[in-house]
Amino acid sequence: MNMHCPQPDGRESLGALIGMVRSEIVRAIETDLASQGADLKFTQFHVLKRLAASGPMTATELARAVDLDGGAMTRQLDQLESKGYLRRQPHEQDRRALRIELTEAGEALWKHLYESNTATLERAQRSLSATEREQLHDYLGRVLDALRDKD
Questions:
Q1: pLDDT(142) > 70
Q2: Half-sphere exposure of 79 (CA within 13 A, CB side)
Q3: What is the C-alpha to C-alpha distance for residues 117 and 96, in angstroms, rounded to an integer?
Q4: At what angle do helices 104-124 and 14-35 cross, to 10 degrees?
Q5: What pLDDT shows up at residue 7?
Q6: pLDDT tens, 27-78?
Q7: For the segment 11-38, what is each residue's pLDDT rounded down to a tens digit?
Q8: Cβ(57)–Cβ(65) under 8 Å?
Q9: Angle between helices 42-54 and 59-66 (to 10 degrees)
């Protein structure tokens, strides 16, 4: 069954377009990761990126930040820990919780991958002016806020 249903004006629906853009970004980033010899899938890359940007956090905070459920988060953490890119440390304030942090190898890998990630996202926006890039970011941020707003 073909789920591809353009709108009456022939354009893709917003949901379909956003889904296709996300799929292409994931594909491009995974291609870049493979070309650099990084044995990572997009989700693992996203976990490293979030830790690099935000610093150590609990598994629950990290799962929320990268939009994964608890089981999926645990699997990603296990894989990244086995590769030596992150470690689980006891939390200073909460003995029941663990803090997830990048190892030196994880930080080095992120620094290595950062430029290619930036180049991929730059390539995705190459046909947009600076103003259009700002507007796109603003529009998507507002759509996301509206969808998350439960009122």
A1: yes
A2: 15
A3: 35
A4: 130
A5: 66
A6: 999 998 998 888 899 999 999 999 999 999 998 899 999 999 989 999 999 9
A7: 788 889 999 999 999 999 999 899 888 8
A8: yes
A9: 120
132: tokens are 């259009």
- How many whole angstroms separate alpha carbon 95 and alpha carbon 136? 43
Cβ–Cβ < 8 Å for 127, 59: no
The answer, yes or no, to whether residue 5 has pLDDT greater than 90, is no
d(CA 59, CA 99): 7
CA distances from 24 to 68, 92, 115, 136 (A): 20, 40, 18, 17
Asked if 62 contacts 51 with a C-beta cutoff of 8 angstroms, the reply is yes
* H helix count then E strand count, the chain: 6, 3
Residue type, 100: I
DSSP 135: H
CA gap 76, 48 in Å, rounded: 10
